[in-house]
Write a structure and sequence with these properties.
The complex is a heterotrimer of chains A (about 290), B (about 300) and C (about 375). With about 290 residues, chain A is α/β, with parallel strands linked by helices. Chain A contains seven helices and 14 strands. Chain A has two domains: about 190 residues, Pyruvate-ferredoxin oxidoreductase, PFOR, domain III (Pyruvate-ferredoxin Oxidoreductase, domain 3, 3-Layer(aba) Sandwich), CATH 3.40.920.10; about 60 residues, Alpha-Beta Plaits (2-Layer Sandwich). In chain A, the strands form four sheets. Chain A has a seven-stranded mixed beta sheet. A two-stranded antiparallel sheet of chain A has the order 7-8. Chain A has a two-stranded antiparallel sheet with strand order 11-14. In chain A, strand 12 and strand 13 form a beta hairpin. In chain B, helix 7 links the parallel strand 6 and strand 7. Chain B is α/β, with parallel strands linked by helices and about 300 residues long. Chain B starts with about 20 loop residues before the first helix and ends in a 14-residue tail after the last helix. Chain B has one domain: Rossmann fold. Chain C has about 375 residues and is α/β, with parallel strands linked by helices. Chain C has eleven helices and 15 strands. In chain C, strands 3-2-4-5-7-6-13 form a seven-stranded mixed beta sheet, sandwiched between helices. In chain C, strands 10-12-11-14-15 form a five-stranded mixed beta sheet, sandwiched between helices. A two-stranded antiparallel sheet of chain C has the order 1-8. In chain C, strand 11, helix 8 and strand 12 form a beta-alpha-beta unit. The mean pLDDT of chain C is about 95. Classes of the chains: A alpha/beta (about 290), B alpha/beta (about 300), C alpha/beta (about 375). Chains in contact: A-B, A-C, B-C. The complex binds thiamine diphosphate, iron/sulfur cluster (3 copies) and magnesium ion. Thiamine diphosphate binds next to helix 4 of chain B.
């Protein structure tokens, strides 16, 4: 038996911690386990992956997981930039933090088990917040245990309860809730798997060309959405001057480029007219 | 200078990989505007080497040469020599973190300054090694938490801007991300001067200093208003305070309480009264030292506020 | 048009840099290479050498400045030795991946402690994995020619690698001999970079290179070394046609036609070895010599062809502790599957022990690996 799990999240969401916790649970139940994070060179907010392997025999693989049995998606937005279904074994499992139902997922395998859970909602309900942002890694592990995996929720609860000190109780509650509330369903996909080929670039010199979006459309890093009230705005350009992302464009008047704005909200603090407000970002199409 | 008169072209392109509220991008963006893009940037290992993004693209729209951590100034000297040989008047600008300036880069910096090579060396000082995940540097202030000073740093920072003054170079100035127009104007003035020029920008970093991501600019202002960071400019050996620091020095403005600055950052949240007192003493000494270097009338009682 | 002058190896290197039209020099003094730095400084100040000379504060900075200058489009030169070369180590790697075709003179010297200023190839050999082309010279004329040839090779579109031209400290660096100071106008024009830092073309050089792209770059650098080996023969020919001097870049053979026992070595002792071969032949030993000039790229095939069926004595003036002579080890693996009779390691001349023809003879007649005294 070798079960491999791939976690997808964004920097700061705890994907790496979740992957390690899972390995700990397996270990304390007598399995061999391994947790391996992959670090890109990005800063907070960028996509992050981590892997866990669980086996009843010693694990010798030191490479990343390319054909996981289970994929855990901590951040619903990540699906827009990363192919979370890539390489997942036929009949494997996707555990997604989502408000969608399993049937709404589209993929190219013939069959996958979809475990859908609103981990963000559960985190908010249980007051699992750090710097105002919901922490979903522990409830996602709860939902994960509904998959074909020989691990027991009590063991996970025990480890988390001990590890997180004062926050332990909240986390344990969230884990149990996610476990209970998750919807599990075998869903049919298109069955037309394609294997994308990467184009090789000849690298003679290590030279790069200036371009926007070296990290993609960084709107996906946005938890808050700034909004300019043009009634109040007197076009003083302070927001433009202070935007760390060069995401405020100068046309007739200042305009936020919502493709790239990361939602740092610096602009809201420098506007002398208090013309920039913000709200939680909700992407309509996710 | 009015904001509307500033260069509109963007040289730090959106969609880069810096953190939310990054002080380095906002400062670099301002600097490159002031240089109107006519610059070759030399960048040693630091956050900027990362947030410009990976091959085959780059978020910086002027020529950039990435170099090893210790050798920014020397690399710039070589580039400048070549450009001079070719008869080109491109400004060669080093953009280094405090690690690449205060610590491992200090020898090359001092060498280039002493040789008087025609370079604009800019340090964005976020008071720690942020690229490797928040370790102390020679620029980290007393008391600050980092991952190599878990109980707070036990030593005060060294002061490289003072060291640069001692090198007798034609331009030394400090700036803060809290005052971008001042930064812009300083770069413009530095650009007009030949020889080795040093500019240091205080760069409050939300993840490293532990404050909310939207407060980068406020923190840059508070540092100056509380006297912790002093704005000055020295041209051809004539030193003057600038901006808010000038108002403070001339007694026209009261310093804000240092605690307001310190305690709004997670890295200082553990400080005891005693430790805050230690920082106060350091700040007073620093003001007095600088005031002595300034020509003309200065309110000698800059330290009044604290007593 | 040229003059013949009696010059030390160091002076020769300085003149070679001047006549190769190096336009930016950044260097730092260290025994025994200091006179290169001094001579260039003088040549520049007297207006004879048309170049910018940056008087850096360290070797790390010297190499950094050369890399910057080369990236900005200038032919760059530096010289160092021993501790200075070791101090440069990080930037040596940088120059390779940056594809900056810098040429550097290295006066080989031991590395301390204890302080030892004398000849030992260990300083340069311990930089063998930095990606630099490495030539080891055996007389001053060769130093002169090789510096110009190294630029020609390094700057070729198919190569674009930095190159070091090494010569034994004191033994060559401070020994005077006649050198034909050929002007290289027909051979080398001003440096024309394929790419350079230029405000009009805002490229970024050297940002993050993801694993697969990094592997591409490294593979390309390996291929460049392979191509350099081929190009060396062409450059040797071109140089010979222009100036009538056979200056080898890959290797030099001596009395190899009927040789049975072959000395393989590098550097100044490769010159002494010729005398040893003659002396051995007088004693009816069918001796021969292969003096290796290019250690990187390592001319595996050429060596294999030459050393088939021979008894090979490898003389290393360097030691890689825990492994043995660096040249011995490389040669052993190169000859692994060829019908060589035997390959025998010898360690000589460490820390500047003088190496005479008798050193070679004794080493060949005795079984000892190490010769730790002067055999006079
Ligand atoms: C010789 C060397 N040692 C260590 C490192 C690792 N390193 C890279 S960046 C960095 C810290 C940079 O700090 P700073 O200059 O303050 O820039 P910041 O990351 O804060 O932007 C370190 C230690 C390196 N790249 N090279
Ligand atoms: S929220 Fe931040 S990134 Fe977005 S426009 Fe405002 S300052 Fe720029
Ligand atoms: S800072 Fe406020 S008032 Fe000024 S341009 Fe921006 S939105 Fe308008
Ligand atoms: S760690 Fe600080 S300086 Fe570095 S990219 Fe993030 S915000 Fe900018
Ligand atoms: Mg720093």
């Amino acid at each position: 038996m070798l079960i491999s799990v791939r976690f997808h999240g964004r920097g700061g969401q705890g994907a790496v911690t979740a992957s390690k916790l899972l390995a700990e649970v397996a270990n304390s139940m007598g399995y061999y386990s391994q947790s391996m994070p992959f670090f890109g060179a990005e800063r907070r907010g960028a996509p992050v992956i981590s892997f866990t392997r669980i086996s009843d025999e010693p694990i010798y693989e030191m490479s990343q997981v390319y054909h996981p049995n289970i994929v855990v998606v901590l951040d619903p937005l990540i699906m827009k930039v990363v192919d979370v279904f890539a390489g997942v074994k036929e009949g494997g499992t996707i555990v997604a933090n989502t408000t969608k139902t399993p049937d709404e997922f589209v993929f190219s395998q013939r069959y996958l088990n979809i475990i859908a859970v609103d981990a963000t909602g559960i985190a908010i309900k249980n007051d699992l917040l750090v710097a105002g942002l919901p922490v979903v890694n522990t409830p996602m592990l709860g939902a994960l245990l509904r998959a074909q995996i020989p691990l027991e929720i009590e063991v996970l609860e025990g480890i988390v309860g001990k590890k997180f000190g004062e926050e332990g109780e909240k986390n344990v509650k969230a884990i149990r809730e996610a476990y209970d509330l998750a919807t599990v369903k075998l869903v049919r996909g298109s069955g037309k798997r394609k294997y994308p080929r990467k184009k090789k670039i000849k690298v003679e010199f290590p030279i790069s060309t200036p371009s926007e979006g070296v990290a993609g459309k960084t709107k996906l890093w946005r938890d808050f959405r700034p909004k300019i009230d043009y009634e109040k705005c007197n076009n003083c350009l302070n927001c433009w001057l202070h935007c760390p992302e060069s995401a405020i464009r100068l046309n007739e008047h200042v305009e936020i480029d919502y493709d790239y704005c990361k939602g740092c909200l610096v602009c809201t603090t420098v506007c002398p007219k208090k013309a920039i407000t913000f709200e939680r970002e909700v992407f309509a199409d996710v | 200078m009015k904001i509307s008169e500033m260069e509109r072209e963007e040289y730090v392109l959106p969609g880069n990989t810096s953190c939310h509220g990054c002080p380095s991008t906002v400062a670099l963006r301002t600097v490159l505007k002031a240089l109107e893009g006519n610059a070759v940037l030399v960048i040693p290992a630091c956050c900027t080497s990362v947030y410009m993004g990976p091959f085959p693209n780059s978020a910086i729209n002027v020529p950039v040469f990435n170099t090893a951590f210790a050798s920014a100034a020397a690399t710039a000297s070589g580039i400048k020599a070549s450009l001079e040989w070719q008869g080109k008047d491109t400004e060669v600008v080093v953009w280094a973190g405090d690690g690449g300036t205060y610590d491992i880069g200090l020898q090359a910096l001092s060498g280039a300054a002493e040789r008087g090579d025609d370079i604009l060396f800019i340090c964005y000082n976020n008071e720690m090694y942020s690229n490797t995940g928040i370790q102390r540097s020679g620029a980290t202030p007393y008391g600050a938490w980092t991952t190599t000073t878990w109980k707070g740093k036990r030593e005060h920072k060294k002061d490289v801007s003072e060291l640069m003054l001692a090198h007798g170079i034609p331009y030394v100035a400090t700036a803060s991300v809290g005052y971008l127009r001042d930064l812009y104007e300083k770069v413009k003035r530095a650009r007009k001067i030949r020889g080795f020029r040093y500019l240091e920008i205080l760069a409050p970093c939300p993840p490293g200093w532990r404050f909310p991501m939207d407060k980068t600019i406020q923190m840059g202002k508070l540092a100056v208003e509380s006297g912790m960071w002093i704005l000055f400019e020295s041209i051809e050996g004539k030193l003057r305070f600038t901006g808010v620091s000038k108002s403070i020095a001339e007694g026209r403005r009261k310093m804000k309480d240092l605690e307001e600055y310190l305690l709004s950052q997670g890295r200082f949240s553990h400080l005891t009264e005693e430790e805050i007192g230690e920082i106060r003493r350091y700040v007073i000494k620093k003001w007095e030292k600088l005031a002595r270097l300034v020509e003309g009338e200065i309110d000698a009682a800059v330290a009044k506020f604290y007593v | 048009m040229y003059e013949v002058k009696i010059l030390t190896g160091n002076e020769t290197a300085a003149y070679a840099a001047m006549n190769s039209k190096a336009r930016v020099v950044a260097a730092y003094p260290i025994t025994p290479v200091t006179p290169v730095v001094e001579t260039i400084s003088k040549l520049v100040e007297e207006g004879r050498m048309h170049a910018k000379f940056i008087r850096v504060e360290s070797e790390h900075s010297a190499m950094a400045a050369c890399i910057g200058a080369s990236a900005a489009g200038s032919r760059a030169f530096t010289a160092t030795s021993s501790h200075g070369l070791a101090y440069m180590h990080e930037m040596l790697h940088w120059a390779t991946n940056a594809r900056t075709p810098i040429v550097m003179a290295v006066a080989n010297r031991a590395i301390g402690p204890g302080w030892n200023i004398w000849a030992d190839l260990g300083d340069a050999l311990s930089q063998r994995d930095t990606g630099w082309i490495q030539f080891y010279c055996s007389n001053n004329q060769e130093i002169y020619d090789t510096i110009a040839m190294a630029y020609k090779l390094a700057e070729d579109r198919k190569v674009l690698l930095p190159a070091m031209v090494c010569y034994d400290g004191f033994v060559l660096s401070h020994t005077s001999m006649p050198v034909e100071l050929t002007e290289f106008d027909d051979f080398l024009s001003e440096y024309e970079p394929v790419w350079k830092l230029d405000a009009e073309n805002p490229f970024t050089h050297g940002n993050i290179l993801p694993p697969e792209d990094f592997a591409e770059l490294r593979h390309n650098i390996q291929k460049s070394h392979d191509r350099a080996l081929k190009l060396m023969k062409k450059i040797e020919e071109e140089f010979f046609e222009l100036y009538g001097r056979r200056t080898p870049l890959i290797l030099e053979e001596y009395k190899m036609e009927d040789a049975e026992k072959v000395i393989v070595t590098m550097g100044a002792i490769g010159s002494e070895a010729k005398v040893a071969v003659d002396s051995l032949r007088e004693k009816k030993v069918k001796a021969g010599l292969v003096r290796l000039k290019s250690f990187r790229p390592f001319p595996e095939k050429e060596l294999r062809n030459l050393l088939e069926d021979k008894k090979v004595y490898v003389f290393d003036r360097a030691i890689s502790p825990g492994s043995g002579g660096p040249l011995y080890n490389e040669l052993k693996s190169a000859l692994a599957f060829s019908p060589v009779k035997r390959i025998i390691p010898k360690i000589v001349g460490i820390g500047g022990i003088d190496v005479t023809k008798r050193t070679f003879e004794r080493a060949i007649f005795e079984r000892k690996v190490w010769i730790k005294e002067v055999v006079s």
